[in-house]
Amino acid sequence: MQLAIVNPIFVVGEFALQIFMAAVVLLRKGNRPQVAMAWMVVVLAVPIVGVIAYLLVGETRFGAIRMRRHAKIISEVDCAANHSHQDSRTRHFQLEPPQHQIAAVCQLASHCLPLAGNKVWLSGDSQEVINRMCDDIDKSKLHAHLLTYIYLNDKAGQQVAAALLRAAHRGVSCRVLVDGVGSKNFLRSGLRKQLQQGGVQVCEALRVNMLRFMISRLDMRNHRKILVTDGIVGWTGSQNIAEAGFAPKAKYAPWVDCSVRVEGPLVKELQMIFIEDWYMESQEDLDDVLKIEPAFQSDGVIAQSFATGPNFANDAVTQLIQSAVQIANEEIVLTTPYFVPDYATLSALAVAARRGVRVHLVVPARNDSMWVRLASRSLYRNLLECGVRIHEFQKGLLHAKTIVVDRSTAIVTSVNLDRRSFELNFEVGIMVYNADFAGQLRYLQSKYMEDSAEIHMEQWAQRRWFDRLVDNAGGLLSPLL
Question: Which CATH superfamily is domain 316-480 in?
Answer without folding.
Answer: Endonuclease Chain A (3.30.870.10)
